[in-house]
Amino acid sequence: MALSTDDDQDSDLTFPPGFLFGSATAAYQIEGAAAEDGRGPSIWDTFSHTPGNVWNGDTGDIACDHYHRVEEDLDLMVTLGLHAYRFSISWPRVQPTGRGAVNPAGLAFYSRLVDGLLARGITPIATLYHWDLPQALEDEGGWTNRATAEAFADYARLVGRELGDRVAVWTTLNEPWCTAYLGYGSGGHAPGIADADSAFRAVHHLNLAHGLAITALREVVTNNPQYSITLNLHLIRPDNPSSAADVAAARLADGVANRLFLDPLLNGHYPEWVLEATGHLTDWSFVTAGDASLIRQPLDVLGVNYYTPQRVREWDGVGTKQSADGAPRTPGTAWPGLDHVEFLDQGGPHTAMGWTVDPSGLEELLLAIGNEWPAQPLMITENGAAYNDVMSADGSVHDPARIDYLRRHLAAAHRAIERGVNLTGYQVWSLLDNFEWSFGYSKRFGIVHVNYDTLVRTPKDSALWYSRLARSGVLRGESSEIR
Predict the structure, then answer these.
(1) CATH superfamily of the domain spanning 13-482
(2) Which residues are annotated as a binding site?
(3) Is the pLDDT score of 234 beyond 50?
(4) Where is the binding site for substrate, in residues?
(5) CA 350 to CA 61: how far, in whole Å?
(6) Sorting pLDDT into bands at 50, 70 and 90, what band is 483?
């Protein structure tokens, strides 16, 4: 299937009625108040406070102080005309040890947040897990331990009882690829474990947690929400499409990165060929009878996060093997089982993360999912770019590169819709500049600038541009913008 190679957009593009334009954040990245009102420690508190793990020794102790400034941030969303807000709930703020006693202050915070969104006409999209596992559960094995998936279901049930009359979309997990492969495979994210067997155990227990959580939510919610999971699916291209070896390398990378999540979630089984290809690293004995039916739960919407594609080839073992764009230098690997696969730099332009800007990859990815599962509604739950934003003397923040990035990716999304993909919304990453995990505060993804000394919020030019799009539903061509 041929894709558009023309990223230029001169004509106006109208999105379908009801298309949700919003923005996304994550609890640990913005909330702060890390030790207040009964919140327990998470693996990211432990990881970020360990010297050498995060750039400049940054932590999420204060972050954007969203916990204390939630009303200000809600009003900001109204100013920007957002239709939806995708936020995450901090498990250790609600249940400090991951089991047992509930923290009433934590639940009350999210109840106020949801009420504040609804009062302002903004659709609440709640993510139950965005990487901040309670440290007490990690001490028992974390996501390598099946009991963590069972605890997650209990947590989902108690949150569902509190918010299950008001949340419009429930997302179980954000990017389980990152949790499993960066947290337990490469060691670059919390909890900082570098072990292939642990990574694959985490993959399965995260998939299981998703299924158990949806079942638990359905037991207690009283409205009629949508149920979802968000995956950072990788668009992986062979360096030489005519090379059987490169095509095989891309297929293996796709298998480990994508099919170990998509197949059990949507097809009800793991792909046998991927299990065989990784069998030298783990025996998969932790997948037990009946797990497949627990994992496969009908999804009302599949969340898709996209930033950049990957290009791979078979590695011949000569010289130093390149790693994935922007990958941190860590003791392990985020791509277990890919010893003979090389990730190639794809050329510019790049974002401040070192990621290649390629909107055609988003179109290609959406079409691939839409063609394989045509009945499955999709939502872009994260897309955005980090740039080295600087505040001007007049107090404004001009970020033309980000506007160009968003315009071109939204045009790619519109092309996918025109070609039949059932795409229901777009949540820009991120509403605010924030704690960017192992990069600390060195990378700015927000459409709203945050001064980390004063915590003052300043909408960037991209926020004003996105606000016009959200209010009109029309992606203006460049000539229209000039007029």
Answers:
(1) Glycosidases (3.20.20.80)
(2) 29, 130, 174, 307, 429, 436-437
(3) yes
(4) 29, 130, 174, 307, 429, 436-437
(5) 30
(6) very low
